[in-house]
Every structure is written in structure tokens, then in C-alpha cells.
Sequence to fold (399 residues):
Amino acid sequence: MYFCVKFCTFFSFEASKDMILRNISILNYKNVAEAHLDFSPNVNCLIGDNGMGKTNILDAIYYLSFCKGYINQSDASVIRHGEPFMMLQGKYTRRDVDEDISVSLQRGKRKVVRRGGKEYQRLSQHIGLLPLVMVSPMDWDLIRGASEERRRFMDQIISQGNPEYLDALIKYNKALEQRNSMIRRDFRDALLYETVEAAMCDAAQRLHEARRQWVEVFTPIFMDYYHAVAGDGEQVSLRYDSVLNGSTMHDVLAANRERDMVLGYTSRGVHRDDLELMLGDHSMRRTGSQGQCKTYTIALRMAQYEFLRKASPTTPILLLDDIFDKLDAKRVERIVDVVSSDRFGQIFITDTNRTHLDEIMHRLQGEHCMMVVRDGMVNDDDALRYDDDDVNSNSNLDI
Ligand SMILES: Nc1ncnc2c1ncn2[C@@H]1O[C@H](COP(=O)(O)OP(=O)(O)O)[C@@H](O)[C@H]1O
Ligand SMILES: [Mg+2]
Fold:
């Protein structure tokens, strides 16, 4: 069955957004058999019960930007059970130019990503074209997960728009791998270590300096978002934890050489850096309540959005998955304020309950979409069209 939701006309805020996902066609992506959705350039809401496919639709949008789903998973697991392939097609307007991006994936074959019908040689050529930030319940891992999660968060943000950082990261990881391999094979040649460690030290110094500077700039932006959602009562901060704070990579490697030989790997270095997430003087991981952790991850992602917007030639898309869950009424209210403030570009937002989304709709000017997701289908019978008149008359807000 083919569902078509066609009700959004575009006006008002569009001028400030130079990248819009106009529509998406989905075929066999997770539990979505077939759908064609036309979107508003402003806020697009997806409501539905648990397990209906709301996250899957956001994930399909994410896929078109990053050539993979948000959750690390095998290629085959995104194809609808029992089907041989999946296909996604997104039509964007990007700086006044239409962009047609498609992804097709057949079981057991490599995925094919096309821009304007032309296949990319390498998927990395596509990354960055359609900037996007996802706020997801899976972001819980940023707080509770290992330091690797937070390093990835830092690396991802800093490397956007900073190719030298990415270069240092690649060089460091390569040298680290070489050193580990030499240790594992019990090499004792000092000259070999010198060469590999010189490359490591140079890259480590660059990474450390870039991360240190980034945390300084990122922290106040993050704090602003946290307070915008939580109010002013809670003090939060970010601390860059690195073995290079007050030392050099050269000294660190020399001091741990014997230890590393016994352990069989390089135990200290910027590959162990962490971003400590603080609530007052305590670590968020140990003291934060569910609602505080949720607020924390939302603020981290919104600050990430600000960074991406500055680093990108186009306004990023914002995906807000289940953000109201576990938050008290005051925080929900403040999030509604932030989301309806027009500081973001095109927004996609999911919820199980329409109260919050209705509230957002009421506050917004311009045109927005509301869609209902049931069993992987987006039903246009349930779709509502909001415009300024609706907001004033309140006439068709009830399903
Ligand atoms: N490859 C797949 N094929 C079919 N169904 C899938 C696949 N992957 C996930 N699903 C189904 O998608 C549903 C979850 O959808 P999701 O978008 O997370 O729901 P929600 O509306 O709660 O966000 C589950 O019922 C799950 O079984
Ligand atoms: Mg979900």
C-alpha cells in the first residue's frame, strides 16, 4: 500500500533555512514497507505509540545524510524482514539547488549511494553534504558509556570543518596501531620506537590543543542550552580530562614504556582522553537522575547543532527523537520554548503523545506538519495541516 502525505505548502521561515528535505520515499526500511512523505520546511511532527516506526523514519532521514543508520548495526538489519532490498530517496533543496539523494541496499551486496543519479565512488564524498544532528534516547551512552563515546562525540564535532584535526586523528591512530603491534611482537629496537613515537607525539600534541580549545568554546554554549531547559538552579560543566594536561606525549610514553611492555599495549595517551560531564562537583554518570541525564544529552546535542551550523555551508537538519520522555512538565515547557524559537533549521520531532507537539504547533508561526505513524505506515487520514489561520482559529486541532 502506498501512502502519500501531501499537504505542506512552503512559506515564511524558509528564507533563513538554506537546506530543506522536501520529501522522502522509503521502501522496505525496517518496519516501513512503503511511504512517500512530503515535509514542511519548518517543524515536522510524528506521533504514534511505541514500536510503530517513528524512530525508523528519523533513522531513514539520518541514513540519507550519513550513509548508515544512527545505531551501529549491520547493513542487512535495516532491510525489512523478509525483503531482498531497501531503498531510500530524499529530495532536498540546498542553497536554492535541488538535490536528489538515493540509497539502495540489496542483501549481501554493497550499498549504492547516488547524488543526482550518479553513484559516489566513495561514501565519504557524501558525508557533510547534508548536515544533520540527531537527538536520540540512545544518547544515554554519552553519559553512561565508556570514554570512547565521548571521544567520538568530541572528534566528530571538532573534525567538522577542521581537516587538520582529522588528519592528526588518522595519523595518531595509525602510529598507535603500529606501536601496539610492535609491543605485541616484543620488538626491542629503540630506533623503530623512536620513529613511530615521533609521529604519535606530533599528532597527540595537535589533538590535545584542539580538544582543549574546543572544550573552552563548547562549554558555555552547552551550559546555555542546559539552563534553557533545566532553569538556573543546576550547575553543569565539562572538563577535559587528558594525560597531556600538564605533560607531554613524549614523557608519557617514556614513563609508561615498561608498563606497556608488560600490558602488551599503549596504556596512556590521548586515545584515553575523556570529557567529564559534571553536575556541580560530581560526575553526571554517578549522580544524575534520568531527567537530568536526558536534559544533559539534549543540551550537548543542541550545542553540537550550533557548532555544526557554524562549520557547515548550509543549515543542518535537527532530528528530535522522543525528547520529552522522562522530563518534568517545566522542562518540557522550556524545551517547547527552545524548539519553537526558530533558532534551528528544519526540525523533525517524535512523541507518543500529541499534547507536547500540539503545544509546539500553537507557538509556531508558518506552516508545519503533523503525521501519525502506525505499524510503519504514515496515514494521511490522520495528517494535519497547520498554518497561521489554524493557530488563530484552533479549528482543526482535534483528530
Ligand atoms: N529490519 C526490520 N524489519 C522489520 N521490522 C523492523 C526491522 N527493524 C526494526 N523493526 C521493527 O521496528 C519497530 C520499532 O520501530 P521504531 O521506529 O523504533 O518505533 P517507535 O515508533 O517506538 O520509534 C519494532 O517493532 C521492530 O521490530
Ligand atoms: Mg522511537
About this structure: The chain has twelve helices and 16 strands. Residues 1-15, 385-399 have pLDDT under 50 and may be disordered. Residues 190-230 form the longest helix (41 residues). Residues 54-55, 321-322 surround magnesium ion (ligand 2) (CB under 6 Å).
